[in-house]
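Summary: Need help interpreting a holo structure output

Steps to reproduce:
1. Submit the protein chain below together with the SMILES for pyridoxal-5'-phosphate.
2. Request a joint structure prediction with the ligand placed.
3. Inspect the structure token block that comes back.

Expected: a single structure record containing both the chain and the bound molecule.
Actual: see attached output.

Input attached:
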Amino acid sequence: MYQELLSTCEKYNATLIAVSKTKPVEAIQSIYDLGQRDFGENRVQELREKYNQLPKDIRWHIIGHLQKNKVKYIAPYVYMIHSVDSSDLLATINKAAAKHERIINVLLQVKIAQEDTKYGLSQDDALSILAQYVDGAYPNVAIKGLMGMATFTHDESAVQGEFASLASLRDQWSDQHSIELPDLSMGMSGDYQIALDAGSTMIRVGSLIFGSRG
Ligand SMILES: *Cc1c(COP(=O)(O)O)cnc(C)c1O
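--- attached output ---
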């Protein structure tokens, strides 16, 4: 399945992020040995343990809700944080990145699902963060685009509509602020094909690569 996903991503010019949360370092190493370098985790403590044991050229992506008081632990090496869901969190990331004299890549997580979801920015809040960013409020972060999660449903047209709305927000906002927002992180094991067709540049796939969790 890994090779199949990889060639699908190549066809769409998208990045495959192997979501390795809850999986042991041996499982990650075996996918690494196939050439995979982008891995996604959602817990800081788990990432810290894995980071210490695994090759240092892995690009680690944080894909789940991140608490401000944990940012300092990953700031030295995290490659991209997909789940920026408040201006406070972004300010904390900016400060930690400055301390380590680096620029951390981030995505703004925007609520697109019809269902009630806990995390994610409203469109208004995302827009005001972009305005602050363009004004220079966060010099040590690079906002690369948007991340979104679709409603958990078998209704493919609903999922398609939600992904399409994120893609159009990206187009609208990058025009409005004259900034490049090249990345759209959307699509998981169950809906990555719909996401790629809607313009995803990064799919976050766990169970299809590593098997189901727990
Ligand atoms: C766990 C997780 C994934 C991967 O889910 P799968 O269904 O196993 O592919 C993707 N994105 C986020 C934010 C996750 O928490």
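--- end attachment ---

Reviewer comment: Residues 49 and 72 are 15 Å apart (CA to CA). The first strand starts at residue 15 and ends at 19.
Status: needs-info
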